[in-house]
Structures are given as C-alpha cells and as structure tokens.
Amino acid sequence: MIAENIKKIEAQLPSHVTLVAVSKTKPIHLLEEAYNGGQRFFGENRVNELVEKHEKLPKDIQWHMIGHLQSKKVKLIAPFISLIHGVDSFKLLSEINKQGLNNDRVIDCLLQFHIANEETKFGFSYEEVEELLDDPLFFELKNVRIVGVMGMATFTENSEQISNEFNLLATYFAKLSSNQFKFADYFKEISMGMSGDYQLAVEAGSTMVRVGSAIFGSR
User: 140: domain range?
Assistant: First the structure.
C-alpha cells in the first residue's frame, strides 16, 4: 500500500517537485517498505528518532529535519543531514555552521517564514530575514548554505486562506531570489505543503512537499 500511495502522489506532482516522506513516529519496517518502493527522501521532526533511523536504514537515504530544531541537538545530525527545513533564528544558523565546520561539510538549510495565522508556528518575518542576510556576521558562515525557504500554512479548512499563505511564501522567495540570492543558482527550494494541502502548495509554486499520512496512513 505504501509504495502505491507514493506512486499515486508522485503522479500528481510536476517533475521538479520533490516528495519528502514524513516518517516521524513510524516504525522502521514502514520506512523500508517506502524505500523498497523507490522513496529516498525522508523527513523527521525529532532528532533522537532521526539518528536512530539513520543508523538502521540504507545510507543513500536523504534525511530532512523538518521540525523545530534545538541548537544543542544540531551536533547529533550534522554528520549526515541532507537538509534542515526549519532555520528560524541566527543562533540556530550559527550552531549549524559550527557543526558543519566540525564535520568538514557545508549543510544545506531553508529559512522558515511565519506565514500562518497561528502564534504557535515558528519562523521569521520578512523584515527579520532581510536583517539577517544584511548582517556582516552572516557572511562569515561558510559551512551553511541557504538553498530556499520553508513555511507552514494555518491548520484550517479554508483553502483560500491556505493558498494566500502559500502565495505569500512564494512572493518572499521571489523577492529574495531577485535580491540577496540573485547570483545563487542553488537558491531554488520552496518547501510548503503537507498531506492535506500539497496540491494547493504546488499550484502556488512549491518545489518540495512534506507528506506523511497520505503515504503511511493516519497515526
């Protein structure tokens, strides 16, 4: 069933959109089923669970950290993480850079924007990101690479509101692309959209969707 679900979702996605299978809380055998069905991008939101799964599963998997990341736990995933979705502070970015240096690698990151009408969600405002990118200290971070943006829409049945929030994130991405990242061909990812709203996200320009229950079933 899992492999079929993946094929069904991929058939709905344009070729440039990456499907990240959100495997948090799921047992190893379900991830193996997805892997055997061809899935290579997996997203986790808890560091300890991510580390454990990385140790037990094939090494060609690209692991994405999709949840809120505490600075003190960066060192645990720095040796192998492919992409950190939720960078929401300069402090966190600095720590990722430090651990990237310790592991002799450049770690790809997305800047998380607060686009939802909910206080509980993490993320920068656009003004905060402009301030961050103009800070001389940012240019000293040689072991992180900002490859795009990420955002989570409000948890609501109102599809118009969700689309508006996704369009806002796409607008932020476009502004950054034509300004601070004008000559950075690696700045190309817009991570938005989950099981319930990924089609709306793709319509708004998403290049990366994070899908859990539509692949693995409800928790």
Answer: 2-216
- Looking at the structure of the chain, the number of domains it has is 1
Helix (H) or strand (E) holding 111: strand 107-113
Farthest-apart Cα atoms in the chain, separation: 50
**All residues at 6 or more sequence positions from 24 whose CB lies less than 8 Å from its CB, including other chains:** 43, 44, 45, 46, 49, 66, 67, 212
- Residue-wise burial string across 185-205, b where 16 or more C-beta atoms lie within 10 A, e elsewhere: eebebbbbbbbbbbebbbebb
pTM: 0.96
Q: What is the pLDDT of residue 62?
A: 98
Q: Measure the CA–CA gap between 110 and 104, rounded to whole angstroms.
A: 20
Distance CA 51, CA 37 (A): 22
Residues of the chain with confidence (pLDDT) below 70 = 219
What is the distance between the alpha carbons of residues 207 and 183, in angstroms, rounded to a whole number? 19
Instruction: Scan for tokens 């990242």, then name that residue.
Output: 181
User: Residue 10 in contact with residue 201, Cβ under 8 Å?
Assistant: no
Q: What is the pLDDT of residue 98?
A: 98
Q: What CA–CA distance (Å, rounded) separates 69 from 164?
A: 27
> If DSSP codes are grouped into helix, strand and coil, which group holds residue 214?
helix
* Strands 41-44 and 62-65, sheet pairing: parallel
126-154 confidence digits (pLDDT tens): 999 999 999 999 999 999 999 999 999 99
Q: Alpha-carbon distance 28 to 53, whole Å?
A: 7
**Which CATH number characterizes residue 91's domain?**
3.20.20.10
Mean pLDDT of the chain: 96
